[in-house]
Structure formats: structure tokens, C-alpha cells
Amino acid sequence: MPRRVTSSGGGRRPAMPGADELFRATAPAKSVETPAPAPAPEPEPSVSASGRVKHDEKMTVYVTSAELLAVEQARLVLRSELGRSVDRGRFVRAALAVALADLDARGTQSDVARRLSET
Q: Which entry of 2, 8, 61, 119 is 20 to 30 Å from 110 by CA?
């Protein structure tokens, strides 16, 4: 019978750690008695643009190619004439803030209300 050659010498498999050891907690457990922090109150909605902050909500808006081109051209104008590099989302949030402020101030006489009544 041919002799079998093994790299470990005895043919035994090395001992592997168990699941409990692999998936053990690495941070100390939190005390059960610690009360959960009170949720932060919702900020009042404002009409100012939010700028460069983390946003929790998402809204998808479909635009025509001409509207997208106009947004991109406006971004280039802001960059070349004012030295401000603004991404699309920030530009749209600023425009939305302007429209909401105008609606709040002038109601049905606002530009956005007038445009919506024309369509």
C-alpha cells in the first residue's frame, strides 16, 4: 500500500475557532438601565435653502433635456461670473427655497402660483 504524504505530519486538521469566538462582541455591552436619549424635536420647516448638509429625504424629479441643459448652463454662469461651484441638488434646493418664500409672501400672486395656474 502506498504511503500517504500530508503537509501537517499527522493528517489532523488544525483546530478552528467556533462561531461564538468569531462573532463575539468587540464593544462593551451597554447598560440596560441607561435611558434612551429623547428624540430631537423636528425643526420648523424654513424657506431657506439647506445648502451642504446631510439630507434625510429624497425626491426624484424628471425634467426635459432642455430644462437640464438650462440648469447646467446656470451652474456654469454661477461658476464663471460669481466664482461659485454649485452642484445640481444645491441649485435646485436654492431655487425651491426662492419659490417657497415667494409663495409664502405673495400667495396666489407669487410667480410659482401664477405659473401653475397657467398650465
A: 61
